[in-house]
Amino acid sequence: MKRRVLFVCTANSARSLMAEALLRHMAGDRFEVASAGTEPAEPHPLALQVLQEAGIPVEGLYSKSLSELQGQYWDYVITLCEKAARECASVSSGAQQIAWDFPDPAEANRHATFALTLKELKERIGLFTLVHQKETGLKPADYNPVTVFKAMADDLRLAALLLIRDQEKLCVCELTEALEVSQPKVSRHLATLRDAGLLETERRGQWVYYYLNPRLPAWVGRVLDETAQSNRVLIERPLVQLQAMAERPVVQCP
Superfamily assignment of 3-135 in CATH? Predict the structure, then answer.
């Protein structure tokens, strides 16, 4: 599944809009991208112009308010100015927050300034995609036992993994209820399991569901099966919590 990235600046008319278009153009096969502003305005004509001159599609780009995207799941929230960094902390509690600081080219209102901002954003986004590729480069054929066992060597992560194995698919809100821990904590542990190649995700509306990676090596599958069969007590209480949640429709996820 693609990782979700949200770029945020003040007006969402230049920097974050250009970053959205750049990342989608450079790595749209790996990332789902959006941008927003704390005080959105209209897309700046020079921002659209330099994008088009660089051969980067601008169709569908428009300025959005941060409030429109509040509550959605994001893997990364990248702010492009100090003001946005201060005001968007509550956008997605489970996201990795990254702060970049680029001067607003709209203040100069010159073509050369917008072109320079585009160049600098392209360089920074290139580094971001490279680092992300290295951090999540574990391939199904190259499962390292040390990486796998480190990912499972935590009581909460192990319980979540066994619970997902038992229920086939669970979303963060269900795991939060079942494990009786906060959503940010659950999200962090699930990210570790996913980065280790143990879990995959599926989006349904604003909810992300987790399930065992169907490409797990046979030896990993056997480890999980043996662990689950011999340690049912690890998920007994979480299963009771899930059942209680199902009996309270008001808190069910869509």
Answer: Response regulator (3.40.50.2300)
Give the contacts of 45 (CB within 8 A, at least 6 positions apart). none
Query: In terms of Cα–Cα distance, which of 37, 62, 35 is closest to 48?
Result: 62
Residues with catalytic roles: 9, 81
| Rg of the chain (C-alpha set) | 21
pLDDT for 144-173, tens place per residue?
889 899 999 999 999 999 999 999 999 888
Half-sphere exposure of 21 (CA within 13 A, CB side): 26
CA distance to 131, 158, 198, 223, 226, per residue, from 232 (Å): 38, 12, 20, 14, 10
**Any idea of the CA torsion for 238, 181, 161, 140, to the nearest 10 degrees?**
160
Q: Which of 88-97, 145-154, 182-191 has the highest mean pLDDT?
A: 145-154
Specify the CATH number for 141-251; select among 1.10.3720.10, 3.40.50.2300, 1.10.10.10, 1.25.40.10: 1.10.10.10
Q: What is the pTM of this model?
A: 0.56
- Kindly report, residue by residue over 9-26, the tens digit of the pLDDT: 999 999 999 999 999 999
Contact 187, 199 (CB under 8 A): no
